[in-house]
Amino acid sequence: MFYNAIKTNMKQLTSHILMIEPVAFRYNEETAKNNYYQKHLETFSAEEVQMKALKEFNGFVAKLEQNGVHVHVVQDTISPDTPDSIFPNNWVSFHQDGRVALYPMCAENRRDERRPDILDRLQKRGFNISSIVDFSVYEAEDLYLEGTGSMILDRQNKICYAALSIRTDEDIAKQFCNEFDYKLVAFTANQTHNGERLPIYHTNVMMCVADKYVVVCLDTIDDKKEREALENAIENSGKEIIEITEEQKGRFAGNMLQVQGNEAYLVMSSSAYNSLNKIQIEKIQSFNPILHSDINTIEACGGGSARCMMAEIFLPYNS
After folding, report:
1. How far is CA 194 from CA 39, 188, 197, in A?
2. Of the given ranges (25-29, 81-85, 156-160, 300-304), which has the lowest mean pLDDT?
3. Which residues pair with residue 152 across a beta bridge?
4. Assigned domain for 229 exists
5. CATH number at residue 186
6. Which of 309, 180, 304 lies closest to 251 in space, CA to CA?
7. Running DSSP on this structure, what letter comes out for residue 138?
């Protein structure tokens, strides 16, 4: 597959971010079935885990806001039980034309994260929602596509990158692309777990698309043709490849997001930042500064990192 760079009026990054403040964050047994990054923190009580996660969340929000990012925080609710609500990018995406997409979630206890009241709040805060495209009906068929965890969107060039897995169904991804006018680049990305090569649960664990570059772990793609097709798609989109290793991916170095604040920043966890070598850091910083925050508890229990915590809001805005 070859995709030439095209000029659109679509923005790759936004200064408005939705984040969900946790009230009962914990290890989610349902998602741990295919998220091999999750860990039990057995030395801490549930209350201590929530307290640590909330402190990390607040520190992360503060760092974003101090650098000019507009963070729209909504607190989770105690009931229903949604231990992974801190990762809103899986159930919703917000688009520049005013549309909102809702997604089918693999774990049953994540489906209650889809909250219409959050959309109402955003409208009251000045965002315009023209319509809702609801893919969640596919849950009835046991088919899933978990938002911008499953799909990495090059919004400028209208390319959707998707690593196929039980949580990323190719047919629904194609339907998303037809609906939102994207070209699909699908592949399988693997990780080694208990001596086996198994699909990575979310694409945003192994790649991040920014305005002028892509951070990607190409070593996760075992099929040479698929790897070559992915490299070609990125290069032909006019973006530079910054490659990371599988070990760095395991420390969430692929789970990054470029956001707009006082300037453009690449946002990541401190674990991800500390895994990068000097050359990689210098390359990223040649494009934009890096913001990183300590979210070790959230990463360990939730198996997700900085990118997963931020749902980008591209909706039209009445400031």
Report:
1. 15, 19, 9
2. 25-29
3. 161
4. yes
5. 3.75.10.10
6. 304
7. G
What are the DSSP calls for 232-266, one per residue?
HHHHHTT-EEEE--HHHHTTTTT--EEEESSSEEE
DSSP state of 261: S
Q: What is the largest CA-CA distance in the chain?
A: 53
21 neighbors 72 (Cβ within 8 angstroms): no
Residue 73's DSSP bridge partners are 19
Domain tally, the chain: 1
- Report strand pairing: 196-199 vs 207-209: unpaired
Q: How many CA atoms lie within 13 A of 102 on its CB side?
A: 18
Q: What is the pLDDT of residues 176-218, one digit of tens each?
A: 999 999 999 999 999 988 888 999 989 999 999 999 999 999 9
Half-sphere exposure of 216 (CA within 13 A, CB side): 24
Q: Which residues of 130-156 are buried (b: 16+ CB within 10 A; e: fewer)?
A: eeeeebbebeeeebbbbbbbbbbbbbb
With pLDDT > 90 as the criterion, what percentage of the chain qualifies? 82
Range of the domain at 140: 16-312
**Residue located via tokens 């998303």:** 176
Q: Are the C-beta atoms of 100 and 119 separated by less than 8 Å?
A: yes
Burial class (CB in 10 A: 0-12, 13-18, 19+), 200: buried
pTM of the model: 0.93
d(CA 52, CA 16): 25
Each as own residue / partner, the long-range contacts of residues 224-227 (CB below 8 Å, 24 or more positions apart, any chain) are 226/187, 226/188, 227/187
In degrees rounded to 5, what are phi and psi of residue 196? -110, 150
Whole-number pLDDT of residue 155: 98
For residue 7, being part of any structural domain is answered with no
Question: What would you report as the CA-atom Rg of the chain, rounded to the nearest whole angstrom?
Answer: 18
CA–CA separation, 309 and 259 (whole Å): 13
**9 in any annotated domain:** no
In angstroms, rounded to a whole number, what is the distance separating the alpha carbons of residues 17 and 109? 24
In a domain, 6, yes or no: no
